[in-house]
Design a protein that fits this description.
Helices cover 79% and strands 0% of the residues. By secondary structure, it is mainly α.
């Protein structure tokens, strides 16, 4: 029975060095990304009279922290299969650039901010799905990462096709997205933690 478990799912990936082993060793980095997203979402919900500039700063801070954590995770990935980990680095760079632009152009209009967040969400979603595909042979429950990516892409598309929503509706939509996105990352992090113990 133990042999069967060792030869299925993540046990294959942990048998040797690589991205998957590094992700399991650094599961707490995904946990931090999830907690940052949930914190952003909760702040966007509970902040009364949230202005566009405040929302931009909050989102910029979240994007910067998410990017730094993603790049840290990419550099912590050891072993020879550096190719598949590019999606972590790319998502980190995109998030950092998005955060910098959000702080640099705090006076942007609601429409520009929405299109900017929408483009970021689509790019991040695509890199997450790519990462899940790259890890599908060794990661059980890669559907968490795929769901995260699909959610990001769907969120980005919704923002692009419904740009006329009111500011409060936009803030709530972004908040719900961040909270759900964060909880999926937290679930994935604890799943990786379990695999590390296996």
């Amino acid at each position: 029975m133990a042999d069967t478990h060792a030869q299925s799912g993540l046990g294959v990936g942990l048998a040797g060095p690589g991205l998957l082993r590094s992700l399991a060793d650094n599961w707490w980095l995904l946990l931090l990304r999830g907690l940052a997203a949930v914190a952003f979402g909760v702040l966007a919900f509970v902040w009364p009279g949230l202005t566009l500039i405040t929302l931009t700063w909050l989102w910029g801070a979240y994007a910067l922290s998410d990017g730094v954590i993603a790049i840290w995770a990419a550099f912590n990935a050891s072993g020879g299969d550096a190719g598949p980990r590019w999606w972590l680095g790319l998502s980190g760079v995109v998030s950092i650039l998005a955060g910098v632009v959000a702080f640099w152009y705090t006076g942007m209009t609601t429409l520009v901010l929405l299109m900017f967040i929408a483009a970021w969400a689509v790019i991040i979603g695509a890199t997450q799905i790519w990462g899940a595909v790259a890890l599908r042979r060794v990661l059980q429950h890669e559907w968490l990462l795929i769901l995260n990516g699909a959610l990001s892409i769907a969120f980005g598309v919704i923002l692009m096709v419904q740009p006329g929503a009111g500011a409060l509706a936009v803030a709530w939509m972004i908040a719900w997205y961040a909270i759900f996105f964060g909880f999926l990352y937290i679930a994935l992090a604890f799943r990786l933690r379990q695999y590390k113990r296996a």
